[in-house]
Amino acid sequence: MSKFWKFITNKSEDGQEENVELRIQGDIVSDDDVWIYEWLEMDHASPNAFRDELNEYDGKDITVWIDSYGGDVFAAAGIYNALKNHNGKITTKIDGKAMSAASVIAMAGDKVMMSPVAIMMIHNPLSSVQGYASDMRKQADVLDSVKESIVNAYQLKSGRSRNKISQMMDDETWMDANTAMKNGFADEMLYTDKEEDEPKNKAINFCFNRLAIQNCAKDSMQKLIKIEESRNIQEPKDDIKAVLEKINDKFDKINDRLDELEDKAPKEPEPKDEEKIKQLKAKLALKCRLL
């Protein structure tokens, strides 16, 4: 029988079992439809047969590679349950696609990882039915219940609210690795070094907060001016303006210098550059237009 899954046992040099890999690909189909796929000699799944084969690796950690367009949601639920009940750590790795029902299987992993070129897609369950109007209405209720069961799996993994997940399914959401991690559907990206993911140009990294710093400084200075005015300091108003203009001119020069730094191509800052950036940040906190 042609199956959509394949267990691979990697052995160490001394012949001891080292780890077990499971590759899931092809359509995910229910037990009732297996005969069609056998007849057409197409890759397919039989959840009961999958569960029996998985039991042979009881107690072993398993890496599950997924590359599937999906298929029958009930078959996916059976495979999801089998993986969740497995006595051992499950790591799911999406190296191509995990769409529709296949995304449900991916949620069974204790850790979910995606290739930088992989795609995950979630959507509402769909079905076809014929009959009376009452049959149509009943089928709609069934689909609503099926959706709630799928939301359970997504929520357990992602931690997102049910309303948010429901909306994502309504919108038929397609997620690359970064988007999936942002939404909690994946934990890590494959083939990357976490340290290399950090921004390399720290000047560009903090420049986005400049307006917030400027507004904060401006508010503080304006409060200071009001306090001084309330004390009725006897100082010509024109003299105050002249002093503030000089201060603003100096700050404008600092601001222009920062703009030049931001326009430069990103590069790894040297230790001395990092110290300069810290000084510029401190000066930037005073940048404001006081008049």
From TrEMBL:
Q: Determine if Coiled coil is one of this entry's keywords.
A: yes
* Coiled coil segments of this chain: 237-264
Domain of life of the organism in this record? Bacteria
Supply the Gene3D superfamilies for this chain: 2-enoyl-CoA Hydratase, Chain A, domain 1 (3.90.226.10)
The answer, when asked if Repeat is one of the entry's keywords, is: no
Keywords from UniProt, A to Z, are: Coiled coil, Cytoplasm, Hydrolase, Protease, Serine protease
A GO BP term here is: proteolysis
Q: Which GO terms describe its molecular function?
A: peptidase activity
Query: What does the similarity note say?
Result: Belongs to the peptidase S14 family.
Q: What is this protein called?
A: ATP-dependent Clp protease proteolytic subunit
Mind giving the lineage of the organism this protein is from?
Bacteria, Bacillati, Bacillota, Clostridia, Eubacteriales
